[in-house]
Amino acid sequence: MSIRSNKILNSVGIALLKGISHLPFRVIYALSDGLYVLIRYVFRYRQQVVRKNLRRSFPEKSEAEIRQIEKAFYHHLCDLMLEAIKGWSMDLKDYEKRITFRGLDKIGEHFDQGESVIVLAMHHNNWEWCSVVQHLAKHQLLMVYDPVRGNRQFEDFLISIREKFGGKAIPVNKAARTALQFHQNKTPYALWLAADQRPGEVNQLWTIFMNQEACFLPGPGKISVKTNQPVFFHHSRKLKRGHYEVEFSPLIERPAELSEQEILQAYVQKMEEDIRHQPAHYLWSHKRWKQHRPAGFKLFVPHSPSQTVTTQP
């Protein structure tokens, strides 16, 4: 297919998504229910990946319990996809009815002191709608994202949704440079990133995440230690279908006093607490634990900051 044909096809697809976004929520969730049947039972989208991730993350649960979480996950995933599309036409009042924020006052105190902050989030519940927080936050929000490969038009569509309230979407490869520019201009910012993603390349930062060895991006630890900017954790709870509560809680006040591994472990511990509270709402379809730790790479053991061990993958 030619480049021109791809662009036309993408343009038609995005126009369709924009049309869907104008549908009322009751229709949006009816579409989600239909999509659930297609994704889970017809296409069986990454079913083996989901089950493998769940079984290894919750070895204490029975097979029946795993299947219940799996079912709820696919329902939530379909809701999430349709909610993200719906965000294109939602105005501020729509968001205010469906998502509430807590803990912004603590972050705002750092702005009043001229300090930037780092906010560590994860792929749990609805992270797409959270960009609306910019209208309440004092800091300039820098939302770090992983670019959509091979489809710039769809990426631009997503960015238009994320930036509609004034936040800035920053590609992950430009995050450090952009943060430095804001720092040099003495503009307090909140560097906001979902740091639970699997790195593109294996590095030395390994720990236990949901009962499995996992490699993590080194960026959040490096940036926080180097800048000593306070680190907050982004909690997200699903109250009911289409309604969320988000809380920002202090995670590390003085990161320069800790190691990158200790910062990572504090982050992982908070993630696990939230995942275990609402296990079906994490992104289990992602191949998070695909990588294997190479021989000689140290494993940072949970809750033992001074202890590392070396084992074969």
Give start-end ranges of low-pLDDT stretches.
Answer: 304-313
Q: Report the span from N to C terminus.
A: 42 Å
Give the spatial strand order of the biggest sheet. Answer: 1-9-8-2-5-3-4
Largest sheet: 7 strands, mixed
What is the total tally of β strands? 11
> For the CA atoms, what is the radius of gyration?
20 Å
Reading the helices and strands in chain order gives HHHHHEHEEHEHEEEHEEHEE
Helical content stands at: 40-55%
Q: What structural class results from the helix and strand content?
A: alpha/beta
Strand content: 15-25%
Q: Determine the mean pLDDT.
A: 92
Tally of separate domains? 1
Instruction: Give the overall silhouette.
Output: globular
Oligomer: single chain
- The number of distinct helices, counting runs of at least 4 residues, comes to 10
Describe it.
The chain has 313 residues and is an alpha/beta fold. The protein has one domain. Helix content is 43%, strand content 19%. It contains ten helices and eleven strands. The strands form three sheets. It has a seven-stranded mixed β-sheet with strand order 1-9-8-2-5-3-4. The chain is globular.
